[in-house]
Amino acid sequence: MAFTAHDPRYGKGIVELDLLVLTPEELEARLLAVFEAPGYQPPALPRIALELLELSRRPGFTVRPVLRVLEQDPLLAASIMKIARSPLYAPVRPPASLREALVRLGSRALGEIVLVAATSQRVFRVPGYEKPMHALQQHSLAVAHAARVFANAARREGDLAFLAGLLHDAGMAAALVALTDRVRKPPPFDEIFPVVEQTHAKTGERLAQLWKLPDDVRAAIAGHHQRPRGNDWLGVMIMLGNKVALETGAPGLEGPSAVSAPALAAGLGLSPDKFATTWAAAQQAVTTALAS
Q1: Band of the pLDDT at 35, cuts 50, 70, 90?
Q2: CA pair distance 85, 82, nearest whole angstrom
Q3: Which of 52, 112, 119, 182 could tie 123 with a disulfide, CB 3.0–4.6 Å?
Q4: Composition of the chain by helix, strand, coil, percent to 5
Q5: Both 32 and 50 in a single domain?
């Protein structure tokens, strides 16, 4: 079983390593070296998706420039249309055309759908690991929806919480890509997952930096398994989202944090009654999102 990586200590050449002769600590060090190498290229958040996200946030949003952008990427357009026709976004009647979908969605929902479509197509796709990557994508989607519900209840930025929740485990997918680069047969997932899980907060932080995500999103991704400190409200949202996802039965590849959900909610200023109603709303949001 080989690990092929661009190791900066050996110039720009490819170094093939045998995973079987490396300790977990050595493998972790090699993996992190890949992410810190000057020439490392992360899984792409497609340019067109970032452009659409920016368009959706501009004042005076209209559908015409968005349609022009989508004409450049039919696959992304098809994914957006599929999500827009789901019960989550079209509970009464599915839109008949992409133009109708964009008009009905509005700018905020469009930005959300663009992120979901782009990550499912480009980030959570690793050949040989289709099943765990689908579980990871579903888990991330569940965390994103629950995090936004709690953020809105606490009068914080729900869209930012959604973004952090959706990408908090992207480091796992990127690590799997790095570990299997140019390997003929991907090693069994169970054999490499412990190292992927151990490093994913660090690799996720590196991705957030390369993707030029907001600093508070990057900090939340880096520390989403640690007890929140200071004003890290996004880290709290990710933790609460994880707990809701697990409680709801969403697919998951990681365990819950040690801090209880009521304690996390109290830190946001939510009363016990407000926490209970928000928890129920978050569960419903996750159930609806995963059923779509």
Answers
A1: confident
A2: 5
A3: 119
A4: 65, 5, 30
A5: no
Using alpha carbons, list the distances in angstroms from residue 290 to 11, 144, 239, 245, 274: 45, 11, 19, 10, 24
Tokens of 15: 């170094």
Residues 87, 189, single domain; the answer is: no
Range 26-38 average pLDDT: 78
Domain stop point among 74, 93, 123: 123
CA 43, 77, 84, 251 torsion-angle sign? negative
Rounded Cα distance between 107 and 102, Å, is 8
Kindly state whether residues 85 and 174 are assigned to the same domain.
no
Q: What is the pLDDT of residue 15?
A: 37
**157/273 same-domain check:** yes
The domain boundary residue, chosen from 88, 123, 158:
123
Answer whether 0.90 is exceeded by the pTM.
Answer: no
Considering its fold, how many domains does the chain have in total? 3
